[in-house]
Amino acid sequence: MVFAEKGFREATIREICQRAGANVAAVNYHFRDKEGLYEAVLTACRNDHRNPENHLAMDSTVQPAVRLEAYVRWMFRRVLALDREFPLGQILNREMIEPTPALSRIVEVHIRPEARWLASLMRDLLGPTFSRDELSRATMSVVGQILFYKHCSSVIHFLDETLMPRRDDFEAHVRHVTEFTLAATAGLRARRESETPLTATTFDSSSPEPFCKSPNVH
Amino acid sequence: MVFAEKGFREATIREICQRAGANVAAVNYHFRDKEGLYEAVLTACRNDHRNPENHLAMDSTVQPAVRLEAYVRWMFRRVLALDREFPLGQILNREMIEPTPALSRIVEVHIRPEARWLASLMRDLLGPTFSRDELSRATMSVVGQILFYKHCSSVIHFLDETLMPRRDDFEAHVRHVTEFTLAATAGLRARRESETPLTATTFDSSSPEPFCKSPNVH
DNA sequence: TTCAGAAGTAAACCGTTGTTTGAAACTAGT
DNA sequence: ACTAGTTTCAAACAACGGTTTACTTCTGAA
Fold it and tell me: Is B188 within 8 Å of chain A by CB?
């Protein structure tokens, strides 16, 4: 989709219509204006991308380390996917740099559920002695490691193209991020639980889990 | 600078000149065209940003853990800096999403030296038993954790604004990334050195260090 | 068959943006 | 004071992009 390649601003209605074999005026007729078309595309993407096939990571009976690796692999696959396969990724990229009013909905529909799920996985890895904010930061450390390859891909390409994970071969990267994270969480947990007596000071369990629905809903 | 706020494409010569109190035609007279102005701005930024004040991290007599924390703190400060203070950051953001011919030079001048330096610090943390690629990936894990807060700031804001480090208070984030990384490297190193007999199989020391100057120079 | 409303279309409209132009203002050497 | 070269500027130019318009074509119920 043109929006994914060029971003909202640079995508021209004329090019979109040329590729789609449609008339320029049809956009304004059916979607009121360019922004209306954009939102229509977004909801279409949302439907496309439901039901991710990462069953392993979702299976709560599997041990956390395996679930983490499955999640990392799944996320790498999305990060490296072609725009055709996962147009939302590129669109999200643009929204980061210059948000449009559509970002709020994208976050609520796509990001927040995934963030909460990953946070609960990180809770399993870190144990109950970490605060909500500590847990959130650890969660962001994981996704940050992976998203780096998306956001900085052009720089990586210039630095050393062999470091960029390839669509058909990124197992080494999956294993690195997984093991880096597992080593970190295990180390942090061991230190924390040796510092504080494991009886008391488990954190206030009434405090909400990370990434709960915030007050600012659209 | 307008380029930093809006990106190359969306920055209009008229707005730039209005803010600068100059005439629109002056740009074409002095810099040939818009792209010439852009490159002039970039070299100006380069000169502005020389000589970073992270002496502690650079001091190789200090122990690696302290240097890492100093580096993380320095990088967070840049990531959270206002555009006025560090315009190159925002410009680099844009270049990631849609690179212009100027990106190559930015990488060689700014990114590669820093990447090599950080990789050598990571070498100190991880020891000699890790390959060049493993070392590179660990390096990227560190910067990925920090850059996440820049590239995803708008999403973080929607998810839970309290998680976004503030310009005047990001020590908790610095400590998290530092400790997360130290725990990861310590864990990985301990595992590696217990697996392999510490005598042999230290990696081929003739293999070049990460982020060496690649063949594709502009 | 008729015809009212929906859908599609080419052309025009209007604002914006990078660039050019031609003349005026300025500078410095003689 | 004169002049050659440089710098500045307002206006115009040309291209582009989103939107509107006026018209045609299509569709389906009466």
Answer: yes
